[in-house]
Amino acid sequence: MEKHYVGSEIGQLRSVLLHRPNLSLKRLTPSNCQELLFDDVLSVERAGQEHDAFANTLRQQGIEVLLLTDLLTQTVDIQEAKDWLLNTQVSDYRLGPVFANDVRGWLGELPHRELARHLSGGLTYGEIPVCIKNMVVDTHAANDFIMKPLPNHLFTRDTSCWIYNGVSINPMAKQARQRETNNLRAIYRWHPAFAKGDFIKYFGDENINYDHSTLEGGDVLVIGRGAVLIGMSERTTPQGIEFLANALFKNKQAERVIALELPKHRSCMHLDTVMTHLDVDTFSVYPEVVRKDAQCWTLTPDGHGGITRSEERDFLHAIEKALGISQVRLITTGGDAFEAEREQWNDANNVLTLRPGVVVGYERNIWTNEKYDKAGITVLPIPGDELGRGRGGARCMSCPLERDGI
């Protein structure tokens, strides 16, 4: 089987990319967390332990777990990759040519694991040697950031997503996340596990301003059988979807893309926070948001390099048609209205399916997990009291690199 191939959301998961955050979380404070897209500050130690429990749950199921800091460390072992990353993440225009050159020179001498930690965890003025002098330095305090931390790297799902035989390296909507994409571009371009790989880069590998064409992996569900379901959310635009759909069709990787409109607010930041795929005919949904009357279109190739768009009467019908099943089974968030809203906020619907009918989810979502259990879905529970504060569950925190189709 092709090494980097993701044929569905529910087929046997074989390899996955996670990020165990540390430095970036240490730098989350009450005064900067909102700007960095977190609602709260996390206990770093606890979050790390919970993340280890998640990674170990996957390993115990025989799934290969790759960690972002390891991949970045191995990527900067390659001089060309290191130069590109330093020039991209510490640009002349950001810091001024003299200061940027000094910072790149100093970072370039660091042990590679330490450099990788700064590429995700950021860098403050207080951390650079005092011999680096500059007007920029004089006008900043020691705790100001030269490079801001990237705490959202925790959610590896968003920055890139594998769809059939290729990957979309996503142009992120929020400034706090845009530099994450460069770390992934470097990994997929130079890391030995990917550099010679026979896979397609659909979108997002160029150093340009993607303007309104933003896309995040949390909105992309590879539902299988040649179909992809994408949510139009706060972060993923119709423009971004059109670029991705075009590339999928041109490379003959998908026959249809179903686009579903979502409300543009934080509680349903991505499609996967309100809907995930559990088994061939079964999805978990938060019914307050994923409603039958939501606008939905199916995009198909028009045969001349363009796209045909047809409005669907409802998204369930569109999914049934795409998967060739007679009826979609929905498992809604558990508990009464109050409990359901709380559990959705704590990612009860954001579960990672390891194989049909077996999912990983936060143990705290007792009402929803009980409903999954009654419906014959096995939940492997992980602790999430701290991790959940980042507003992302097991699916958000994982980027499948290899997964069977259905």
Automatic annotation (TrEMBL):
InterPro entries noted in UniProt: Arg_deiminase (IPR003876)
Broadest EC class assigned to this enzyme: hydrolase
Entry superkingdom: Bacteria
Annotated family: Belongs to the arginine deiminase family.
Annotated active site: 396 (amidino-cysteine intermediate)
Full protein name: Arginine deiminase
Localization in the cell: Cytoplasm
Matching SUPFAM superfamilies: Pentein
Pfam families documented for this protein: ADI
Entry EC no(s): 3.5.3.6
UniProt source species: Pseudocitrobacter corydidari
PANTHER family (UniProt xref): ARGININE DEIMINASE (PTHR47271)
Catalytic reaction annotation: L-arginine + H2O = L-citrulline + NH4(+)
Main location: cytoplasm
Keywords: Arginine metabolism, Cytoplasm, Hydrolase
Pathway membership, UniProt: Amino-acid degradation; L-arginine degradation via ADI pathway; carbamoyl phosphate from L-arginine: step 1/2
Single GO molecular function: arginine deiminase activity
